[in-house]
Amino acid sequence: MAGLCPGRDHGIGRGVPLMTRSEWLDTATARVRFSRDRERVRRELEDHLNDRIDAAREQGMDYPEASAAAVEAMGDPEPLAVELGKVHSPWLGRLWVLSRVLAVFALLVLVLAFLSGNLWSPLRTTLLGYGVWELEVPPEVEDINGRTITRTGLWEDMDLGEQGGYHWRVPLAFTQYSANQDTGGDGIYSMELHLTAETARFWEPWADSETVLAVEDNTGCQYSSWLPAGGTEAAPYFYANGSSDGLGKSHATVYIYFMPDNRDLKWLDLTIGDTVLRVDLEGGVRP
Amino acid sequence: MRKNDRAAAPGGTAMLVLALLKSGEMYGYQIIEELERRSEQVFQLKEGTLYPLLHGLEKDGLVLARDAEAPNGRVRRYYRITSAGLRALEEKEQEWRVYARAVTTVLAGGCPS
Description:
The structure holds two protein chains of two kinds.
Chain A lengths: L20 H9 L5 H24 L4 H12 L2 H11 L2 H27 L4 H8 L19 E16 L2 E14 L8 E11 L14 E5 L4 E2 L13 E8 L4 E10 L8 E6 L2 E6 L7
Antiparallel strand pairs in A: 1-2, 2-3, 3-7, 4-5, 4-8, 6-7, 8-9
Chain B lengths: L11 H10 L4 E2 H11 L8 H13 L3 E7 L5 E7 L1 H25 L6
Antiparallel strand pairs in B: 1-3, 2-3
């Protein structure tokens, strides 16, 4: 605070300690303890002070005179500071800051959970495309072993209905024959079958629960879930990959290797726990 | 008449400020000038009274404040009355009428009927 200014007598405030604008503003807002509030109040009072200066200058004062007159007219900042301090409780401001800190913290936790992948798999699926299943029929070309692949059957959107609390669908299945031109022998008959299970109980996705899958066809042939000793041409065999989108929809891709000499194949029974799903393959397993 | 910083009566300065804001949104300096003009220089509100009052009214939800650019390019804090403020104003006006009638009657030497 400036002391008495006998040398700078502007004709106003005689005997009253003269303050500069910023001293007055600092004093008036000193008791507003929350800094954001303080800045806002200071801006408002400064604006007011500027209006007063403009008014004084319109009456013909020069700037220093007008400024001093304006500060003088604003009155004693001390009692104003006390009153403003009462109105602006710092607790509301602190609560506001605390809520922001908590929000940032919560966001951080979410990001970590999201990245760790233990939580929010639906979100990850949506945002990053994890677990988005490709339902594509591969082209009929030679495979990596030089075999010519011929598509022998193609099914789309087979609805297997409701069983065991899940709605089962086969969005895509196809059978193919890979001729082995090197040996001239029987090729490989196989099937790729996409199976989906939907439930409203998203916390009980089928593919994440204990998945017991068994495959048997109409000829009574049971398919091994272990790779046969002689390879896929030696015994009927299947394997499956399953995953869940975290929203109650599970998807499994089942690869089934038929016996090349099984000429009477009509349907497959997929046993999943207590549920038996019949996949009808009538007309189209063979070329 | 002596110039009053405070309108010492029921309702007081808050009532006058709310009554001013009823006619439209205003900023602090404007409120002081407008009150002086409308009261024919009787009420001269000081900054030391006005701002704690305005900020208190804002805290109580009787007025809303917003920062907006004034025609001269300055960003000003404008206040406008809320519906809760209008209700409070009505109550204060009512109290004031009772008070004013009582004072008038006493000054006239009569007895309120």
